Amino acid sequence: MPTTLSRFFGWYERHYRVNLAATTLLFLLQVIHLYWLTTHVVLDRLTGVSYFDPSPFWQYVIIAVDYTEIPALLSTSVLYFYELHKKFSWKPVLFLLFLNSQWLHLFWITDEFVIERFLEDGAVALPMWLAWVAILIDYLELPVMVDTTVKFFRTMGKKIVS
After folding, report:
1. Domain boundaries, the chain
2. What is the rounded average pLDDT of the residues 91-120?
3. Rg of the chain taking only CA atoms, in angstroms
4. Is residue 21 helix, strand or coil?
5. pTM above 0.85?
6. Fewer CB near the last or first residue (10 Å), C or N of the chain?
7. What is the overall mean pLDDT for the chain?
8. Helices in the chain by DSSP H: which ranges?
9. What contacts 51, CB < 8 A, 6 or more positions away?
10. Residues 6 or more apart from 148 whose CB is under 8 A from it?
11. What pLDDT sits at residue 120?
12. Which helix (H) or strand (E) covers residue 55, if one does?
């Protein structure tokens, strides 16, 4: 009798293309957040000029997109656990570390802290270098975005057999 995990991975494999498409789309939405972070926060700190000052409507869009990071992290982690289930490789392990460092960023070092520390130079108990760590953690998503996108396009032309 197959275990629950084996049944789950069997289902995942049968629906791999759909799971991969959803995972890739969810994760690529984070480009919007990274664009805002780079042009509004990082460049403002480095050059003194913000290159992106969104209207209130676009601020809400960015906030909504940022909340898709949680399902993106979950679905992408499942993708790499599926790959490890099929065959061990260090690449999924590394990407799982990159991905799951985001939880630290989400629950400990928030964007509010980064903005407060960078843009307003507020009196925050945490040191400035921690704001840079938070930003670097966010950019660890980029290699995973590239990897899931490449996987998606590679599967588009293939017939997937269970």
Report:
1. 7-156
2. 75
3. 18
4. helix
5. no
6. N
7. 86
8. 4-14, 16-28, 30-36, 43-47, 56-67, 69-86, 90-107, 111-118, 128-139, 141-156
9. 39, 40, 43, 44
10. 20, 23, 24, 27, 28, 76, 79
11. 55
12. none
